[in-house]
Write a structure and sequence with these properties.
six-stranded mixed sheet, 49% helix, 265 residues, alpha/beta
Length: 265
């Protein structure tokens, strides 16, 4: 198993995780992982040397206070987007402990975020009481991963095992790229109320940047044609959201609202 190096260096109160997992009989190595905090890998010996292949299991681990902070500053959605983009089959989101009195957000907000992560993002979620409880849960999961891998090795159905990519390819594909227009575009769309994950995924699969979508919308002759195009990208988009997108991408000025008609909530 690879453990993110920053998980240890930046969080000294949890440095016992690395040592304890080793004591529990697991082979653990520190790495600067591009995403997640724990990643299971298989090491294959070849004539050319060792090759490392990620398995389909990864964990993002946060204390409740960490999670509250990441929701507050926007990292929460970005990290989930990158985890989903990895296409690993088994993504686990581990939340440790309860929000403290000094937390950025309340425990109820943390609980709602975990529910959204499970129901909307389709990640597997796990709450643990403390660091020791997290170690025990990770150890049990590791036993399951190892058992499943051994069963695949011993299976007579096929005489080979397929891996999605090498660790080097995994690291390159999932490294942060703040200057990547598509990643920035996806984050921008997610900030628009009503633009769900399905819509963002569909749009970014067809358009590499905001400029590409801008050009596509403005080539159309009318707002009605633009509404049809946007509705075609996702049937879940509401009329209000579609109108907001048209204003954002196609109008030189935002609509003016008379002051007497403006209500604040």
């Amino acid at each position: 198993m690879y453990v993110d190096n920053r998980e240890i260096k930046n969080k000294t109160d949890r440095s016992c995780v690395y040592e304890q997992l080793n004591l529990n009989g697991m082979t653990v190595q520190l790495k600067n992982l591009p995403i997640g905090d724990f990643l299971w890998v298989a090491i294959v010996e070849t004539a050319e040397g060792s090759k490392v292949y990620p398995l389909e299991y990864i964990i993002e681990r946060k204390t409740a206070d960490d999670l509250a902070s990441s929701i507050f500053d926007g990292r929460y959605n970005h990290q989930k987007y990158r985890l989903k983009a990895s296409q690993l089959k088994h993504v686990y989101y581990l939340c440790e402990g309860k929000a403290s009195k000094g937390s950025m957000l309340s425990q109820s907000v943390v609980d709602t975020a975990m529910m959204t992560t499970r129901l909307v993002d389709k990640f597997r979620t796990q709450h643990t009481k403390d660091t020791e409880d997290s170690i025990n849960w990770i150890t049990r999961l590791s036993m399951v991963v190892e058992k499943n891998f051994i069963q695949e090795l011993e299976s007579d159905e096929k005489d080979y095992i397929e891996f999605r990519y090498t660790y080097e390819e995994f690291s390159k594909k999932n490294s942060k790229a703040p200057s990547d227009p598509k990643a920035i575009f996806a984050q921008m769309l997610r900030k628009i109320k009503g633009c769900g994950r399905e819509f963002v995924s569909t749009v970014t699969s067809q358009y590499n940047s905001a400029m590409d979508l801008y050009k596509a919308l403005n080539r159309l002759p009318s707002d009605e044609a633009r509404r049809t195009m946007l509705k075609g990208l996702s049937s879940k988009l509401s009329k209000t959201t579609i109108d907001h997108l048209i204003v954002l991408f196609c109008k030189e000025e935002y609509p003016k609202i008379e002051k007497e008609n403006l209500m604040l909530e």
